[in-house]
Amino acid sequence: MNMKAISFAGALTLATVALADNSAAPPPLPLGLSPQLYKLTVPQPPTPAQVTLGEKLFNEKRLSADNSVSCATCHDPAKAFADGKPQAVGIKNQVGQRNSPTVLNALFLATQFWDGRAATLEDQAKLPILNPIEMGMPSPEAVVTKVRAIPEYRDAFQKLNGREPSYDDIASAIAAFERTRMAGNARFDRFLTGNSNALSAQEKRGWALFNGKGRCNSCHAGNAVSPLFSDQKFHNIGVAAHKQDFVQLASEALRVVRAGDEEQIDRLALESKFSELGRFLVTRHENDIGSFKTPTLRNVGVTGPYMHDGSMATLWDVVDHYNKGGITNPYLDGGMQRLGLTEPEIDDLVAFLFALTSEDFAALEKKELTAQRARKTKRPERDTAVALGKKGNLGDLAPNPDLKNPADLGLYGPVAAPEK
């Protein structure tokens, strides 16, 4: 089977067929994803019945208090399972503190949410349903009562599990569906498998910058065995320092946060000023103040706005932020430093980031790239003097290597013929 011919949606269709034949068999994966990683992450793939039920619940607005919001409201399949908004909007048009991350490839993540407060997809599925400004249900018992009163769900759970649903069963079904939402098959993946024409000259320059002068691979390395473009760690890069006095805020939080109280942490993260403390809310460790999880860069071009608070509208804004070394604060990650990227280099790097878009979102990519280019003249994060070392002292610049395509060196198997 030629994996390059399988689209993202096609891979998912084939996955369903494979699961129908053998529930333990791993599905065909989108080009660029590691079968080894999948086996480690999903030792028992979900059955078609679990996935079908989970997809219905994922799109079910009756899981919210006023029947107006579903999981898909903030994780829209048409928007690469994000929502295109700076912060998530829940029932009664309430706006939270955090941006909605994509669900794509969430199955591979070691923790869920920007601050890692949920360990599994099942844990993650439970919290938005109960959060007052997201889906607003008052208790797990209320959710179960509501679902049991809907014949199609009561019957489906009875057939699947041999009993009426519990809250754990509802979360498990949603998680089963989310475990089939995978993203790969980007131009970059075709480049790595030997198609040297898959990337433009500008995108290839951007890839070299990504691994060199731009230092992006320090936290967002991506290759055949690490396909997520995320180290899955938590970093303070200075975004939240725009708004808060971290020292005072952390002192207040220590008096308020109850260690291990997942529901309280969920509310503080979405409803309060303590949101900007990030991972600290979960660990209460000083070195986690203002730290947030490194997001995946797959489909980054079509899942903006960016950062945990959606405060950056374009990838040019994001690169500008890193180019000046972030925003100084007492807890700034030690890896943050000025990059010294010129304007043409910034353009090249952004072009490469758009090359990480899955093939099935090509039309959305074109639309988003046009919209972001139109905003290039509005650059609130830009500080060229700092970035180029004309003021401040934020360290030496990284080299920019002359990168060869690993596929050309035979590192990822035989080189494929260029696509026509």
Automatic annotation (TrEMBL):
Domain named Cytochrome c: residues: 49-158, 201-357
Subcellular localization: Cell envelope
Superkingdom assignment: Bacteria
Record flagged with keyword Acyltransferase: no
One cellular-component annotation, GO: cell envelope
Keyword annotations: Heme, Iron, Metal-binding, Oxidoreductase, Peroxidase, Signal
This protein's record includes keyword Iron: yes
Main location (coarse class): other
Cleaved signal peptide residues: 1-20
Region (Disordered): 370-420
GO molecular function: cytochrome-c peroxidase activity; electron transfer activity; heme binding; metal ion binding
PANTHER family: BLL6722 PROTEIN, CYTOCHROME C PEROXIDASE-RELATED
Name of the protein: Cytochrome c551 peroxidase
UniProt source species: Hyalangium minutum
Taxonomic lineage: Bacteria, Pseudomonadati, Myxococcota, Myxococcia, Myxococcales
